[in-house]
Every structure is written in structure tokens, then in C-alpha cells.
Amino acid sequence: MERMTPEECRSFLRSPVRTGKVATVRKDGRPLIVPVWYDLEEETLVFMTGRDSIKATNMRRDPRVSICVDDEVTPFTYVELAGTVVLSNDADQMRYWATRIGGRYMGQDLAETYGDINSGAGELIVHVTPTHLYGYRDLTGRYPQPARLQGKEVL
């Protein structure tokens, strides 16, 4: 297992496309972890959510979040970003981010469509300013790895 530098962490978060798992805390203290599509703007991680979603409610009450992005293929890698959020409902920025994030995950041919769908009333832009960023690669590198044939496990 090898610790990644901050720049290696940001590079991992940028490419290829992976889903982030955002953790927030409910009013009663229970954790909530949900997948999100995201993009980076310099060091800030940006995603969108519904204004009335449980995670939005949690973030309004407590702006601290943790986001984990991982590679689910051996030898496994992950990056964890902890930070504080700023929520925005700026209409121009909403369209920009909905289109940018939609294009990142679904391709540029569908970017505008996703921009239309995800920039309406009731949506929020979430900007996460990191307070901690770390990652590890090659988590199982010292262990025997499964045989692979064209990306699939050989039984």
C-alpha cells in the first residue's frame, strides 16, 4: 500500500470517471452515504443535489462532509476528501455545472440534455472546499491477485 500525494489524489479524482460517495450526518447522528456525480474546479469538488434531499438538509445543518472515490478493481485505490460545503442556487452556475457534470459522466453528446434536466428549480450546487485530502493505491499489491482474462475473473 502506498500513500498518494495531493496532486496524485486530484489526478485520480479527475480521471477516469468514477462515482463519489458522499457522507453526511443526520440530525439524530446517523450517517448517510450516497453516490454522486462530481467534477473538480482546481481543488474544489463540485456536485449537485436536490434542494429538499436528505443530504441537502444534512449539509445545511452541518456543512462538514466526507467523500470517498475508489477504484473497485484489484489492486484497489481510493481517495478520501473531507471538507466543508457551500450551497448555491445561482441559476447561471446551475446550468453550467449540470451541463459540465452531465457531459463528464454521460458524454458530450448528452451534456446539454443533462444540463436541462438537472438545472431546474429545486436543485443546488454543492462546492466542497477540502480540509483533508489523502489517498492510497495498491491496497492489495503485496497479496496474490486473482487471475484476469479480458478484465474478468477466471474461475
Walkthrough of the structure:
With 155 residues, the chain is α+β, with helices and mostly antiparallel strands. The protein has a single domain (2-153), classed as Electron Transport, Fmn-binding Protein, Chain A (Pnp Oxidase, Chain A). Helix content is 26%, strand content 41%. It has 4 helices and 10 strands, in the order E-H-E-E-E-E-H-E-E-H-H-E-E-E. The chain has helices at 6-14, 54-61, 91-106, 111-118; strands at residues 2-3, 20-25, 31-36, 38-41, 44-50, 64-71, 77-88, 123-137, 148-149, 152-153. Strands 1, 2, 3, 4, 5, 6, 7 and 8 form an 8-stranded antiparallel sheet that branches. Helix 3 crosses helix 4. It is globular. The chain starts with a strand and ends with a strand. The mean pLDDT is 92.
Topology:
Layout (H helix, E strand, L loop, with lengths): L1 E2 L2 H9 L5 E6 L5 E6 L1 E4 L2 E7 L3 H8 L2 E8 L5 E12 L2 H16 L4 H8 L4 E15 L10 E2 L2 E2 L2
Antiparallel strand pairs: 1-8, 2-3, 2-6, 4-5, 5-8, 6-7, 7-8, 9-10
Instruction: Give the SSE order as H and E letters.
Output: EHEEEEHEEHHEEE
- CATH class reads Mainly Beta
**Structural class, from secondary structure content?**
alpha+beta
Number of helices: 4
What is the strand tally? 10
- The overall number of domains is 1
Low-confidence segments, given as residue ranges, are none
Shape: globular
CATH topology type:
Pnp Oxidase, Chain A
